[in-house]
Amino acid sequence: MGEKIGGMLPYLLFILCLQGAMMPAADIGAGEKERGTLETLLISPIDRNKIILGKFLTIAFAGTMTALITVASMALWGFVLSQGMAMKFVADFMAQIGMIDFVLIFLMLVPVVAIFAAALLSISIYAKSFKEAQSYMGPMMIFVIIPIMLSILPGVELTGGWAWVPITNVSLAMKELVKGTMDYYQLIAIFGSTVVIAGAFFAFCIYWFNKEKVLFR
């Protein structure tokens, strides 16, 4: 049961985080182009890197709050169903995963959301309009779903090189946490690789925002 639920959990969480970040990303990038407020913002006495950092943090906050609410809701309803309603299979499941594991699931989502935020903001900056940004962001679902599907294939486990594969490693870690078989030392590789990738995406986003031909295409 833990393996089945753990395999589906990343699919639910990642899609919710991505969708939670999509709308603000499309609005504060391409949306500002349509409203004509981007030019006003750019001529203000504020460093461009600070502007892009503010936009990035806004999108990341929206995605992170989606993750936090989802994980907190799972923990709350698991407790209610196992204790308040005395459902045995839920109680057995909750006995395998502690509060620390729920916290780790949330913490692993934070750098993943940062990757989503940087990628979505880069797309939004490139797009000419809100609708164009949305059309570009839609296919991102595929790039999220494929690594998740890899994590549930037979024989794919959180060992060796899989601990360094982005998104797939977090999916595998969530499955191991739910199963109660997590090797916590693997979290070093998972957090390290995901943070590095998030930093690279954000660096590209800054580079993209500083190109006039991208902003005013």
TrEMBL record:
Keywords: Membrane, Transmembrane, Transmembrane helix. The keyword Transmembrane helix applies. The keyword 4Fe-4S does not apply. PANTHER family: ABC TRANSPORTER PERMEASE, ABC TRANSPORTER PERMEASE PROTEIN NATB. The chain crosses the membrane at residues 12-31, 52-80, 100-127, 139-164, 184-209. This is ABC transporter permease subunit. It comes from Paraglaciecola aquimarina.
